[in-house]
Amino acid sequence: MDEPVKIGTDGTVDAAAAVAEIRRRAAERVKNGEYDLETLARAERFNVAALKDNPEFFNGYLSAIHRVTQVDIGDWEIREKHKGFKGALLIKLKKVIRALLRFYTFRLWTQQNRANAIFHSSLSLLAERESEDLAKANARIAELERRLAALEQQ
Question: What are the residues whose beta carbons fall under 8 Å from the beta carbon of 33, sequence distance 6 or more?
Answer without folding.
Answer: 39
